[in-house]
């Protein structure tokens, strides 16, 4: 109430402040986040030194970045990923990068069981200097979050030239626009179908790379 003006990082968050807290819309300006220039396309030769440290190869994994907590919907992602054809899962293991968050004990145990089968890799916290390489080396990026105030990881993925799939909710459509794929976070079958396209549809993937790079330029 004492602020002269309020800045949010998305129109979605602005609407939340208006609807939940009753703030006058005229007192709020939405200014989106920008993406660091370190997030850019990189060739395999540049990627190899960093990726080899994680026992990964460029273009041969599906990436998701975020804290392991209920809001990020990782259980929903695992459900959808396990519906994919076994050959596709063996070719493109799911790599999860991010620290352990709240209410994550059961999820960590589930991921551990899948790691033993060689279908999921959990990297825990990834240093900031390595993260741009991890993005740029991914076959595709998936972010099935239930709620985001902005959603920086999809923007970082798009700036890296990586085809991206996100939840069709909260602020994520503001970030991704028409450059990526969408799925309702509670629709496991739809999420699995989009994952298959993300990994397998080469015509769409080529177009998505170009559109993603153009979209990312809007967030300076």
Structural commentary:
The protein is an alpha/beta fold. Helix content is 43%, strand content 14%. It has 10 helices and 8 strands. The strands form 2 sheets. Strands 5-4-3-6-7-8 form a 6-stranded parallel beta sheet, with helices on both faces. The protein has a two-stranded parallel ribbon with strand order 1-2. α3 crosses α9. The two termini are 30 Å apart.
Low-confidence region ranges: none
Helix-strand pattern = EHEHEHHEHEHEHEHEHH
Largest sheet: 6 strands, parallel
β content, as a range?
5-15%
Class per helix and strand makeup:
alpha/beta
- Backbone CA Rg: 18 Å
- Helix share of residues? 40-55%
Q: Number of helical segments? A: 10
Dominant shape: globular
Count of extended strands: 8
Terminal CA distance? 30 Å
Strand neighbour order, sheet with most strands: 5-4-3-6-7-8
How confident overall, as mean pLDDT?
Answer: 96
Please write out the topology.
Blueprint: E1 6-8, H1 11-21, E2 28-30, H2 44-53, E3 62-65, H3 74-81, H4 86-91, E4 94-97, H5 105-116, E5 120-124, H6 131-136, E6 140-143, H7 152-159, E7 164-167, H8 172-176, E8 181-183, H9 188-200, H10 202-216
Parallel strand pairs: 1-2, 3-4, 3-6, 4-5, 6-7, 7-8
Helix pairs in contact: 3-9, 7-10
